[in-house]
Amino acid sequence: MNLKIKKGVPLIDQHDKNFMYGGKFGGNFIPETLKKPIDDLTKLFSKLRKDKKFLKDRDFYFKNYIGAPTPFIKLEKLTDYLGGAQIYAKVVSEANGGAHKIYNATVHCLIAKKAGKKFIVGDTGAGYAGKMLSMAAKKFGLKCKIFMGAKDIKRQRPNVEAMRKNGAEIVPVTTGSQTLVDAVSECMRYWVANCDTTHMCVGSTVGPNIFVKICAWSTAQISRELMIQVKDEFGKIPKKIKLLNCVGGGSSAMGFWNEFMDTDAEFIGIEAGGPKNSKLHAAPLTNGSKIGILHGSAQYVIQDSEGQIGRTESISAGLDYPGISSLHCFLKDTKRAKYTCASDEEALKAYQLVSKFENISPSLEPSHAFAEAIKLAPKLKSSEIIIVNSCGDSLKDKDIIKQKLGSYVR
Amino acid sequence: MKSKIAIAFENCKKENRPALITYTVAGDNTKNNSLKILNKISKHADILECGFPHNTPIADGGQIQGSSHRALKNGIKLKDVFQIVKKFKKINPSKPLILMGYFNLIYQSGESNFLNNCKKSGVDGLIIVDLPYPENKNFAKKCKKKGITFIQLLSPTTSKDRMRKIIKDSHEMLYYISMLSTTGGKLKVSPKKILKNYNKIKRINPKKNLVIGFGITDKTISSLKSANGLVVGSMLCKIITNSLKMRQNPVTKLDKVVYNLKRKII
Ligand SMILES: Cc1ncc(COP(=O)(O)O)c(C=O)c1O
Q1: Measuring CA to CA, how many Å separate B78 from each of A129, A365, B31, B117, B237?
Q2: Ligand 1: distance of its center to the CA of B58 in Å?
Q3: Which domains are assigned to chain B?
Q4: In angstroms, rounded to a whole number, what is the distance separating the alpha carbons of residues A101 and A103?
Q5: What would the pLDDT profile of A305-341 be if each residue is shown by its tens digit?
Q6: What confidence category does residue B185 fall into, taking pLDDT thresholds of 50, 70 and 90?
Q7: CB-nearest partner of B181 from A35, A193, A306
Q8: Which domains, from first to last, does chain A contain?
Q9: What interface predicted TM-score (ipTM) does this complex get?
Q10: How far is the CA of A128 from the centre of ligand 1 (A)?
Q11: Is B124 labeled as catalytic in the residue annotation?
Q12: For residue A253, which atom of ligand 1 is closest to its CA?
């Protein structure tokens, strides 16, 4: 069967009655206890997204709290240096808090308020999702708890400190690989036990379907802004335009691409290839992982033949996840988007090059996307456009970069 | 023909007591020991639940995670789980055994293949934690065709309307989750309240065997004994953890503990 995307229908709504995309991705593989809270949240969200007052509130906070629009800039020096395609960046790291995770966090807090919840919990890998949720929770008067792998707590110190400052309780997760995958599991378990009083925010476009939807709906702000900025810059959407985005869970990429779904823009998602000489990676789409169930959703996922979830490795905590959004699986199988990966070393090099030439300094996640831009640009004509979503700032990776490269420049 | 599960409940009813249902993890702490444990505790327990471990369980607390972790570290695979069941059934052909786990393992081995292996090794029932109703309708039907009981779960969050539908489509056994919790949580709801909910569910269809699980230990079991069955899991996993720590034999230790549990409900 040839899967197809429907035109004119939001991608998040292209599921069947079991909330599956293309009949095989997504769904709700959840314990019975979560059926009702998820059902309630699904109903509430479908009401709110049509509610003019709610949309007005959202837009107000996007503009005045998050800061819209984030800058769209040409990377002149990098373009000159590489020769070939013109390279642009959407500097989402200029959003309040420093990454795209603020959109999802803000919307979840607004929803939690509407649901009458006083507590909010969330997972985090790179610490951005946690930092943003703790920020937004503070702003909206919610008590916040963040689940974070013990390994990530060590390697993403600046974001951990930010969470503490915002008054969030950080729960270190010491099971399994002590990274994002375990943080999400532990957060879901906590929600199973506390779903009557507590709202859960999943930090990316993963988890049971409603969380995929809310997250992608929130980050879509990025491409709403970009659409206007692109038209301003070029007068129309250029014929040959490539939108490059790193993918961990996939929330940043979904937001970056959403409004361009029905255009000719090419989408390239870049997964974490892991260390150059390691068998481990976090790139299920690039490396042909099989469909399996992780965190309540069917998706391509790194696993063994029995269905045990596999170990991953990446220098970038935010991409270090064995699964991938059901939406990206759908985009892959419909061939609407292409996926590739960059190694740890390539990402570090890209960080170095971009930081040297330009006024931006991408964190290790978007550096994976820049690595692909650096590979691609010289092969393309100067009439072609590459836009990279620079969705995080290198500041949080200072320690890792220093350790790997000897020095840190921003 | 009546299922072994149905017969076990009937026998307990005749004795005016709930069925004692234990949960242990296949391969915890070794393949051999988990089989020995099943053989020993089946003298006291009426129905045995046996977990097939998954490394990313979204509804299990620390104790069962620990057991699963030990089993996986020992290299347990599904084929070993079926071997354990088969060997157990050879010695205890009439004792009902239920496998419990997460759907991804079934998905990867293929539903029909998995069910064939269940049938061949003598599995009587299945509990799949993350395959809720109505998504589980097709799979439940496949189970029924093979003569395997698919056990639907009900929770304090399940609405009355939904309960009716689930119960209507259910097989002879249902599992009521006592409270909002992962496995192994402390009983945070009073037994009185749990039984009140339990009775509400029973009234929808009194013929279905309804068991209660989550948070049940030697301390709480007797206060719930009016139910058709009571499941003790995390407490047993914890006993294994503790006896390993203290270099005691987990098999003899569990034998004693389950014997004591039984005494509290007769
Ligand atoms: C800066 C940054 N980019 C990307 C990601 C990857 O997540 P996603 O694929 O959901 O955007 C993260 C996750 O923490 C992140 O912090």
Answers
A1: 36, 37, 12, 9, 20
A2: 22
A3: 4-265 (3.20.20.70)
A4: 6
A5: 999 999 999 999 999 999 999 999 999 999 999 999 9
A6: confident
A7: A193
A8: 31-61+101-215 (3.40.50.1100), 67-98+222-405 (3.40.50.1100)
A9: 0.97
A10: 8
A11: no
A12: 11
